[in-house]
Amino acid sequence: MSSNRQFGSARLARTGDRMILAVALVIAAAIAAMVAFSLLAAERVDQASRDRWNELMLDSLNRRAGDLQRDLASFAHWDESVLRTAYFLDVDWVHDNFGRWLHDTQGHDRSYVVLETGLGYASVNGSMIAVDIAPFDAKAMTPLVRGVGAAFMEQAAQVAAATRSGERPRELSPVFRAGYMRVEGRPALVGAISITPDYGRVVSPTRVPPIAVTVVFLDTDFLGDLIAELHVAAPAITSEPPDERRQAVLIPFHDGDIAPAWLSWMPENPGAALLRALLPALLGAAVLLLAAAIIILWYARRATQELAKSEALASRLAYVDSLCGLANRAMLMRALRDRLVRVGPGNRLAIFFLDLDGFKDVNDTLGHHVGDLLLAEIGSRLGALALPSLLASRFGGDEFVLLASVGPDNHEVEAIGAVVLDAIRRPAQIAGQILVISGTIGATIAPDHGTEARELIRLADIAVYRAKAEGRGSLRVFTPRMEREVVRRRDVELELKRALTTGELAVYYQPQFSNDGDVVVGFEALVRWLHPVQGLISPGEFIPIAEQSGLITELDMWVLRRVCEQARDWGDVKIAVNLSPVDFRMGNLADTVRRILHETGFPAERLEIEITENLLFGNQPEAFASLSALRNMGIRIALDDFGSGYSSLGYIRRFRVDTIKIDRSFIQNIGHTEDAAAIIDCVVRLARALAITVTAEGVETREQLRYLQSVGCHYVQGFLLAAPVPLSGVDRYLERVARGESLPVSRSQLR
């Protein structure tokens, strides 16, 4: 009996040993497979990264060729350029407005003007060179120049033939050609454009016009621009293939006979870097897993029954949200990973990220208890949606994620989103109150946007952010551009914080004229950001980011202080400064403005604050209180972009403004749509009846100016009359204020 027990014990021991060995072998095989898969995945990631960077580099090179047309067009498509080159060659003027201007502002290395008789003007590194000693690689650049001339003559012949046949004469457009080539043996980007007028026929179409040529060598400055744009490491231009450690693309020379050159850089190799970072952890985890498996085997039999009994309860506690009754985040991720395995071109999976709009206000005003009841109601509605294959889950807070199988048509995604949003919008009776909220949805689709669960949810969250920025209560499907905008927005925010202290910001002033277009009546202050690397960053890009990040108040107060300091001694001329609706959330806005005026000595009567209609919309008491305090100080109030938002006579009557600025969208449509002219006429009549002055902004044509004069608009501003100018350019307009005289508007001012 004892031997039998010993034999049984030994057999059990051997069985246990065999089980441990089997588990060890399985884990070893799994580790080997994991390592092999990691190596393969790293290689594929690296290859995908190299392919993507090749496309980015070639796209950047091709786009730079297109950018030359923009650089040259401002000079070539200008009547003054025709007069200064076709009729007589004014080399000093050409140098100031072409050669030196392109070098100083755009970094062009060489600039030429080629006439029918030969080279007429040359500039090297921003310095004018005599044409008889100027370096001009005729063998490389002459075919490009002749191509432009031939194309222009062909166009002129077509226009002449059309005119003879009775058609309305057409303008001759500039002809542009660009390409990569070797100039004096060095790789370079060369562009050429015919110099033709804006309007009218100033030069004979039977002659080849002067041709502007520019050269940008692919040198250190060119590579520096690449680093700033794409953040590549150690770029270089070589005439020999680079070594295997570097990634490279061929320079796309326009002529296949040109000796090749390569643009190379140090690749990122994200797959290999990730593998190096994770491999030690994976190996350590595998060892721990093996040890844990051995220990677990000793207790597996005894724990089996207990685990079976508690499995059902644990499953519910682990995968169901106790507040809403929906699947929780753990269940969502589990279901999402399971479904992602089965996705394909004909069986796609849509991930909807739902964020409730205004839920924080419910918590703040009615309490968290009411907020919890509202979340439970929303969860009940989502769980009751009669949509096939739908899984609704609470992701956290007031965020929900829904999964639904969809076909190849994106309209099905939009239809499901509409059903979800309609369910959210229905009024809910919570704690004796009727609550109405809306939701915003961002959606991603697998496999279109990827097959990794967390990444798909992250991209859907980005789409929600974009949807909220464009207007809540809607659905937006993710596009790669949204992610780039998020990254760009973060970078601009960080750079703007730095720019506020480093002097990169400047104030430009756009003159405002009486309706005859002659007398300057004031200036509008506009902030400009001259980034040391990226150049001029549009206010339309960094102002919204400043408003979202909370930097707008600091920025606006900086502009106001700088304007008061600079314009203090400009006589009685009025200065308009824009303030954001965010500024009026300050409890001490009026005190801050009063302190700035006192410290700078600027008269309040000369200051005009421009506000938008969004400030008045919503009947905010603090906004009206601040506006009243500003008016009591003697500051004028202007309602900017009138007609573009929530214009209301009620708001204007409740808080009387001094000036209405008609939105530029109406001005641009004068002569194109009948309703634009009718609306402008009504606005002017209304303003005159209320003794409010009217300013039209965005005036760009004489037709627009004549119409505004005819309806009795008081003041006008726009590029037709004057572009925004830096402080150094204000003096000539201040002279017009003093003399009441008119200054000619030159093309260089408009540029």
TrEMBL record:
Pfam families on file: CHASE4, EAL, GGDEF
SMART domains: EAL, GGDEF
Transmembrane segments: 20-42, 273-300
InterPro entries documented for this protein: Biofilm_reg_signaling (IPR052155), CHASE4 (IPR007892), EAL_dom (IPR001633), EAL_sf (IPR035919), GGDEF_dom (IPR000160), Nucleotide_cyclase (IPR029787), Rev_trsase/Diguanyl_cyclase (IPR043128)
Classification via PROSITE patterns: EAL (PS50883), GGDEF (PS50887)
Domain GGDEF: 347-480
Domain EAL: 489-738
Gene3D superfamilies in the cross-refs: 3.30.70.270, EAL domain
Coiled coil: none
Keywords (A to Z) from UniProt: Membrane, Transmembrane, Transmembrane helix
Name recorded for this polypeptide: Bifunctional diguanylate cyclase/phosphodiesterase
